[in-house]
């Protein structure tokens, strides 16, 4: 197999982003399954072909594989991981905790040990946490140098945590090129579903000689060329960022509010939080709660504020998407750590995804700070 390498890692929460209770019905057109919002109605997705990264490495090599021919998987069970490799992953934790029995499959990570404290992140069911301190009813946890607090009611430790962790370790494909097309089938002749960026991570579904099937988002699966991904193994970890502490109160309120609506209902044309919203109705109502007026539809909201680069964007900024490189058809709110929260479609509701889960048009700062 070409350049597939096994490594030990502890992955961030990237692919497990659908919340319990949100449907994931498959549709005939792959990209529409991700982008079926009020303003998405195109039936064909056209993407500029990715041919090389900054170093000149081909990131979507020509391959004659006929997607209609059956491919023989090189692994009978991609989920199988040898015991000694699992032990090595668990050895990275001085004090392991596993998120368990959460309401709706997600646990708040707070800035202080209080249910009224600001929500600075989320930990999903079966995610592993590094516990650094026991505070009675709360644990202080650390992730990539950021610290937060989680309720002990939803964290298990000791032998129970070890058992859950052993069953939760999985293989992931981590992109090692600057940009990589995700395709509908195992061939460069099939449609591009989206684009993966360097170090993005996806659950591995099947591994072939030159191609790998990955879980893109929710129930959408796609193929990437195996030359440009590394196979790694690990546990899912919380999304947590101390950057929220430096945000304005308006931005913190927007993020906190968006977190609280994950799993909510999508309704075409809806503008009522808690009842049903579409993509632009969701962002409009979030901003309205902070005294900021947004226009009704995504392409109108895209004219407000000022455009910023992804290096400049802050939690609370809006990310806009198109399907034909001309008309804006979707909007989401950036919440930090490379993630957005948006009203995706009727099947998936309000959910979290990576901001570049499909090619985006631009980012705009509406708030002004």
Protein described:
By secondary structure, this protein is α+β, with helices and mostly antiparallel strands. Helices cover 14% and strands 34% of the residues. The protein is built from 6 helices and 24 strands. It has helices at residues 30-34, 83-90, 158-168, 249-260, 279-288, 298-301, and strands spanning 6-8, 96-99, 106-110, 119-124, 128-134, 138-143, 146-151, 155-156, 170-175, 179-183, 192-197, 201-207, 211-217, 220-225, 229-234, 239-240, 271-272, 276-277, 306-308, 318-322, 328-336, 339-345, 349-354, 360-365. It has a 6-stranded mixed beta sheet. A 6-stranded antiparallel beta sheet has the order 19-24-20-21-22-23. It has a 5-stranded antiparallel beta sheet with strand order 7-6-5-2-8. The longest helix has 12 residues, at 249-260. The protein is globular. Residues 1-59 and 62-70 have low confidence and may be disordered.
Descriptors:
disordered N terminus; single chain; 6 helices; globular; 369 residues; six-stranded antiparallel sheet; alpha+beta
Span of the ends, CA to CA? 50 Å
What percent of residues adopt helix (DSSP H or I)? 10-25%
The string of secondary-structure elements, in order, is EHHEEEEEEEHEEEEEEEEHEEHHEEEEEE
* Largest beta-sheet details: 6 strands, mixed
Q: What structural class results from the helix and strand content?
A: alpha+beta
**Annotation field: number of helices:** 6
Average pLDDT metric? 78
Radius of gyration: 20 Å
SSE topology:
Elements: E1 6-8, H1 30-34, H2 83-90, E2 96-99, E3 106-110, E4 119-124, E5 128-134, E6 138-143, E7 146-151, E8 155-156, H3 158-168, E9 170-175, E10 179-183, E11 192-197, E12 201-207, E13 211-217, E14 220-225, E15 229-234, E16 239-240, H4 249-260, E17 271-272, E18 276-277, H5 279-288, H6 298-301, E19 306-308, E20 318-322, E21 328-336, E22 339-345, E23 349-354, E24 360-365
Parallel strand pairs: 1-15
Antiparallel strand pairs: 2-5, 2-8, 3-4, 4-16, 5-6, 6-7, 9-12, 9-15, 10-11, 12-13, 13-14, 17-18, 19-24, 20-21, 20-24, 21-22, 22-23
């Amino acid at each position: 197999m070409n350049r597939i390498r096994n490594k030990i890692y502890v992955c961030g929460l990237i692919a497990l982003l659908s919340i319990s209770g949100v449907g994931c019905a498959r549709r005939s057109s792959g990209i529409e399954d991700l982008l079926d919002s009020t303003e998405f109605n195109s039936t064909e997705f056209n993407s500029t072909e990715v041919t090389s990264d900054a170093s000149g490495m081909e990131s979507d090599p020509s391959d004659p594989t006929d997607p209609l021919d059956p491919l023989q998987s090189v692994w009978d069970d991609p989920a199988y991981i040898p015991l000694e490799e699992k032990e090595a992953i668990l050895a990275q934790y001085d004090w392991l905790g596993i998120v368990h029995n959460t309401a709706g499959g997600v646990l708040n990570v707070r800035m202080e040990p209080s249910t009224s404290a600001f929500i600075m992140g989320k930990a999903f069911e079966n995610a592993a946490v590094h516990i650094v301190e026991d505070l009675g009813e709360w644990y202080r946890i650390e992730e990539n140098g950021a610290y937060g607090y989680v309720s002990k009611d939803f964290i298990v430790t000791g032998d129970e945590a070890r058992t859950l962790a052993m069953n939760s370790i999985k293989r992931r494909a981590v992109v090692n090129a600057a940009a990589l097309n995700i395709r509908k089938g195992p061939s460069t002749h099939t449609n591009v579903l989206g684009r993966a960026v360097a170090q993005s991570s996806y659950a591995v579904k099947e591994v072939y000689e030159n191609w790998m099937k990955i879980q893109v988002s929710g129930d959408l699966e796609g193929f990437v060329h195996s030359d440009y991904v590394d196979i790694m193994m690990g546990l899912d970890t919380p999304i947590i960022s101390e950057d929220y502490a430096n945000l304005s109160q308006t931005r913190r309120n927007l993020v906190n509010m968006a977190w609280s609506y994950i799993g909510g209902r999508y309704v075409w044309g809806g503008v009522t939080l808690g009842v049903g919203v579409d993509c632009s109705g969701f962002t409009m109502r979030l901003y309205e709660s902070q005294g900021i007026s947004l226009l009704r539809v995504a392409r109108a909201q895209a004219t407000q504020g000022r455009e910023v680069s992804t290096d400049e964007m802050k939690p609370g900024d809006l990310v806009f998407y198109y399907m034909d490189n001309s008309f804006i058809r979707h909007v989401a709110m950036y919440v930090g750590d490379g993630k957005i929260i948006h009203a995706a479609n009727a099947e998936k509701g309000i959910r979290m995804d990576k901001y570049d889960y499909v090619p985006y048009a631009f980012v705009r700062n509406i708030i002004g700070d």
